[in-house]
Amino acid sequence: MSWRVVGETFVTLLVIMDPAGTAPIFVSRMSAGERQRAVGRAVLAAGLLIIGFALFGKVVLDYLGVSVESLSIAGGLLLLLVALEMLRGFDSPTGEDSDVALVPLATPLVAGPGAIATVIVLARQHPDAAGRAAVVAGILAALLVLGASLLLADRLARVVPSALLHFLTRVFGLLLAAIAVELVVEGVRGLATGA
Question: What is the DSSP letter of 98?
Fold first, then answer.
């Protein structure tokens, strides 16, 4: 197993997953009890999704006839809906069966189009068994850091006043909307240049 590939995967995914940016969104959209239970579900779901795409992503996308650019646009639109809810003050899931740990936290925030595209490319660059194992090891290391940051965010949220959390929810909703638009723009640009 190549430690260079592990490090490359770890650093790249950590930048894309952005634990510092994901943690406030996680805190603002859940109650204290929900947050504690959600960390494990979110990290596990994101991990399964990213590792699955690292191992089989290219095959799945090719079979479905879906480009990475189209995946980016779809993820951006989904994030935009979440951002609009945050800006309007709907901080909790509306349906009984909604699980914020899975959507939007696990995907598209953590295991979004950027992370999926990255692991597909890295797996294609390192197609042998040792290379794939190194990519998976890098993914697991990034997920551990993400899980730790979410647990720390939960502890921090207990001492931050709720009025400040509501204010930060709106601010991060605006930033999330900008990220969503950027994902759509990148997808459209990729489709336009590839055509």
Answer: -
